[in-house]
Design brief:
Blueprint lengths: L4 E4 L5 E5 L1 H9 L3 E12 L4 E10 L14 H7 L15 E4 L14 E4 L1 H7 L4 H4 L14 H9 L6 H4 L3
Parallel strand pairs: 1-4
Antiparallel strand pairs: 1-2, 3-4, 5-6
The structure holds zinc ion.
Length: about 170
Amino acid sequence: MIEPVLVLNANFEPINICTTRRAVGLVLNGKAGLVLNGRGTIRTVSITYPKPSVIRLHKMIKRPRLAVRLTKREILRRDDYTCQYCGQKIPYLTIDHVIPRSQGGSHSWQNLVAACPSCNHRKGGRTLDQAQMRLLHEPKEPPSSAQYLFSRHLCENEDWLPFIQGW
Ligand SMILES: [Zn+2]
Protein backbone atom coordinates (compact mmCIF):
# COMPACT_ATOMS: atom_id res chain seq x y z
CA MET A 1 0.00 0.00 0.00
CA ILE A 2 1.35 3.40 -0.96
CA GLU A 3 0.97 5.95 1.76
CA PRO A 4 1.20 9.40 0.27
CA VAL A 5 3.16 12.07 2.09
CA LEU A 6 2.31 15.75 1.79
CA VAL A 7 5.30 17.91 0.85
CA LEU A 8 5.36 21.52 2.01
CA ASN A 9 7.59 24.21 0.59
CA ALA A 10 9.87 26.10 2.97
CA ASN A 11 7.09 28.68 3.44
CA PHE A 12 4.67 25.89 4.37
CA GLU A 13 2.77 26.03 1.08
CA PRO A 14 1.65 22.51 0.12
CA ILE A 15 3.25 21.73 -3.22
CA ASN A 16 3.30 18.05 -3.83
CA ILE A 17 2.55 14.53 -2.74
CA CYS A 18 5.24 11.87 -2.70
CA THR A 19 5.74 8.32 -1.51
CA THR A 20 6.85 7.44 2.01
CA ARG A 21 10.10 6.12 0.60
CA ARG A 22 10.89 9.36 -1.19
CA ALA A 23 9.90 11.45 1.83
CA VAL A 24 12.18 9.51 4.17
CA GLY A 25 14.97 9.89 1.62
CA LEU A 26 14.53 13.66 1.59
CA VAL A 27 14.57 13.82 5.38
CA LEU A 28 17.62 11.57 5.76
CA ASN A 29 19.49 13.59 3.13
CA GLY A 30 18.84 16.75 5.09
CA LYS A 31 16.66 18.27 2.39
CA ALA A 32 13.45 18.22 4.39
CA GLY A 33 12.22 18.05 7.94
CA LEU A 34 9.52 15.96 9.48
CA VAL A 35 6.45 18.06 10.22
CA LEU A 36 3.92 15.43 11.13
CA ASN A 37 4.30 11.82 11.98
CA GLY A 38 1.27 9.81 12.81
CA ARG A 39 1.92 6.54 11.19
CA GLY A 40 4.28 4.64 13.41
CA THR A 41 7.78 3.81 12.31
CA ILE A 42 9.65 2.33 9.38
CA ARG A 43 12.48 -0.08 10.03
CA THR A 44 15.34 -0.77 7.74
CA VAL A 45 18.39 -2.90 8.43
CA SER A 46 20.20 -0.03 10.07
CA ILE A 47 17.62 2.46 11.30
CA THR A 48 14.19 2.87 12.73
CA TYR A 49 12.57 6.05 11.58
CA PRO A 50 9.20 7.73 12.14
CA LYS A 51 6.96 7.32 9.14
CA PRO A 52 6.14 10.81 7.88
CA SER A 53 2.71 12.10 6.98
CA VAL A 54 3.83 15.66 6.22
CA ILE A 55 7.34 16.93 5.49
CA ARG A 56 8.69 20.40 4.76
CA LEU A 57 11.54 21.29 2.44
CA HIS A 58 14.32 23.32 4.04
CA LYS A 59 15.01 25.27 0.86
CA MET A 60 12.30 27.19 -0.92
CA ILE A 61 11.50 25.69 -4.30
CA LYS A 62 10.35 28.02 -7.05
CA ARG A 63 7.67 26.62 -9.23
CA PRO A 64 4.74 27.73 -11.29
CA ARG A 65 1.41 27.89 -9.56
CA LEU A 66 -0.21 24.46 -9.60
CA ALA A 67 -3.20 24.01 -11.84
CA VAL A 68 -5.74 21.25 -12.05
CA ARG A 69 -4.94 18.97 -14.99
CA LEU A 70 -7.49 18.79 -17.74
CA THR A 71 -8.45 15.13 -17.59
CA LYS A 72 -11.71 13.23 -17.75
CA ARG A 73 -11.46 12.44 -14.06
CA GLU A 74 -11.00 16.10 -13.15
CA ILE A 75 -13.85 17.24 -15.41
CA LEU A 76 -16.18 14.76 -13.74
CA ARG A 77 -15.00 15.92 -10.33
CA ARG A 78 -15.54 19.60 -11.24
CA ASP A 79 -19.04 18.78 -12.44
CA ASP A 80 -19.74 16.79 -9.27
CA TYR A 81 -20.31 13.61 -11.29
CA THR A 82 -23.50 15.13 -12.65
CA CYS A 83 -24.71 15.33 -16.24
CA GLN A 84 -24.55 19.04 -17.06
CA TYR A 85 -27.61 18.79 -19.30
CA CYS A 86 -30.18 16.79 -17.33
CA GLY A 87 -28.68 16.82 -13.83
CA GLN A 88 -28.52 13.05 -13.48
CA LYS A 89 -25.85 11.70 -11.19
CA ILE A 90 -24.74 8.42 -12.68
CA PRO A 91 -21.50 6.45 -12.48
CA TYR A 92 -20.93 6.11 -16.23
CA LEU A 93 -20.80 9.69 -17.44
CA THR A 94 -19.15 10.71 -20.67
CA ILE A 95 -17.42 13.94 -21.66
CA ASP A 96 -19.15 16.23 -24.14
CA HIS A 97 -17.62 19.00 -26.24
CA VAL A 98 -20.13 21.84 -25.83
CA ILE A 99 -19.09 23.25 -29.20
CA PRO A 100 -18.33 20.08 -31.16
CA ARG A 101 -14.78 19.57 -32.34
CA SER A 102 -16.13 19.30 -35.89
CA GLN A 103 -17.34 22.91 -35.50
CA GLY A 104 -14.08 24.21 -34.10
CA GLY A 105 -14.73 23.54 -30.40
CA SER A 106 -11.61 23.48 -28.25
CA HIS A 107 -10.32 20.91 -25.79
CA SER A 108 -10.59 23.21 -22.78
CA TRP A 109 -12.25 23.60 -19.39
CA GLN A 110 -14.72 26.02 -20.97
CA ASN A 111 -15.80 23.57 -23.65
CA LEU A 112 -15.86 20.21 -21.88
CA VAL A 113 -18.61 19.00 -19.58
CA ALA A 114 -19.83 15.80 -17.98
CA ALA A 115 -22.80 14.36 -19.87
CA CYS A 116 -24.82 11.19 -19.47
CA PRO A 117 -24.76 8.92 -22.53
CA SER A 118 -28.33 9.74 -23.50
CA CYS A 119 -27.83 13.54 -23.40
CA ASN A 120 -24.52 13.15 -25.24
CA HIS A 121 -26.25 11.06 -27.88
CA ARG A 122 -29.19 13.45 -28.15
CA LYS A 123 -26.91 16.43 -28.63
CA GLY A 124 -24.72 14.61 -31.13
CA GLY A 125 -22.42 16.79 -33.22
CA ARG A 126 -24.49 19.92 -32.66
CA THR A 127 -24.05 23.12 -30.71
CA LEU A 128 -26.37 24.02 -27.82
CA ASP A 129 -28.48 26.24 -30.10
CA GLN A 130 -28.68 23.66 -32.83
CA ALA A 131 -29.70 20.96 -30.37
CA GLN A 132 -31.87 23.34 -28.34
CA MET A 133 -30.25 22.17 -25.13
CA ARG A 134 -29.04 24.10 -22.10
CA LEU A 135 -26.20 23.67 -19.65
CA LEU A 136 -26.93 23.67 -15.92
CA HIS A 137 -23.68 25.54 -15.19
CA GLU A 138 -21.26 27.54 -17.23
CA PRO A 139 -18.11 25.36 -17.47
CA LYS A 140 -15.04 27.02 -15.97
CA GLU A 141 -11.54 26.11 -14.98
CA PRO A 142 -11.66 24.80 -11.39
CA PRO A 143 -9.89 26.76 -8.64
CA SER A 144 -6.21 26.01 -8.25
CA SER A 145 -6.36 26.24 -4.46
CA ALA A 146 -4.46 23.61 -2.54
CA GLN A 147 -7.68 22.56 -0.92
CA TYR A 148 -9.23 21.76 -4.31
CA LEU A 149 -6.06 20.20 -5.70
CA PHE A 150 -5.44 17.91 -2.77
CA SER A 151 -9.04 17.36 -1.66
CA ARG A 152 -9.32 13.86 -3.05
CA HIS A 153 -6.59 12.80 -0.61
CA LEU A 154 -8.19 14.46 2.37
CA CYS A 155 -10.69 11.77 3.30
CA GLU A 156 -7.84 9.34 3.88
CA ASN A 157 -5.46 11.93 5.28
CA GLU A 158 -7.50 14.15 7.55
CA ASP A 159 -4.38 15.18 9.42
CA TRP A 160 -3.32 17.15 6.31
CA LEU A 161 -6.22 19.56 6.52
CA PRO A 162 -4.55 22.22 8.69
CA PHE A 163 -1.60 22.28 6.27
CA ILE A 164 -3.79 22.66 3.19
CA GLN A 165 -6.48 25.09 4.29
CA GLY A 166 -6.04 28.63 3.10
CA TRP A 167 -3.56 27.94 0.30
ZN1 LIG B 1 -28.06 13.81 -19.14
